[in-house]
């Protein structure tokens, strides 16, 4: 059997694949967090609950309505995005000019409420969600077995992250969004409805979390705790990449997933803490994050 650094190649590449999959979810969730913070100035602690809600809506569409995976991949993020936009219009819009702490406390409370509702309705045991038949099976690459669905998750997340970055950084719409965060009054003078733009931006960030939830449903069990187990790590990823940095969230998410996967191979005891160790080191060297800028 082929070995690398004394580790069986199949085990090493298998952990790298798991790390890349985790990195895909870190990147999508931290992208939504960075987008909401960078453009709306809100630290959205309810992001993990909305990720969980995306997985649950997909599961409910399957079990109640019989909707397939591809339908759920479109419908679930739209429904969760509408829910998020209602939250933004009724609650968050009152906090934009206040300290970050108010938004953090409100969204933390929302996360507890959302999670509590789903725990009350469905308990904490996981519900299975089958892999779609089009993506079942896998490829034997010789040095490892690659499940098709996991390859799809990685590719889909990369496309979504790259498309979001191009939308924000390279289009006129993205320029309007960035300008609105700097001087909303001036942007409104050009006939642009800034409140609607902000609401849609929040909805887009929430939809990214919901898409991640739908993608995660066939890999992890659908349960009310799946968001709270992930959100702390995702916040660490955002801090390492730089608060509000879209590119930083994407690159750091994938890289830290790989670092976590390699740590599980060479030093498994540190796998659950390695990201926080990296965060501490980065904050000591560059407090604004790897891609962040000093305010």
Plain-language structure description:
- The structure is a single chain.
- It is built from eleven helices and four strands, in the order E-E-H-H-H-H-E-E-H-H-H-H-H-H-H.
- The protein is mainly alpha-helical and about 300 residues long.
- The protein has a domain at about 25-225.
- Helix 1 (about 10-40) packs antiparallel against helix 8 and helix 3 runs antiparallel to helix 8.
- It is globular and about 60 Å long.
- It starts with a strand and ends in a 10-residue tail after the last helix.
Summarize the structure.
This protein has 295 residues and is mainly alpha-helical. The chain has eleven helices and four strands. The protein has helices at residues 9-40, 47-64, 69-90, 100-122, 148-170, 172-182, 184-189, 194-216, 228-241, 246-266, 274-285; strands at residues 3-4, 7-8, 138-140, 145-147.
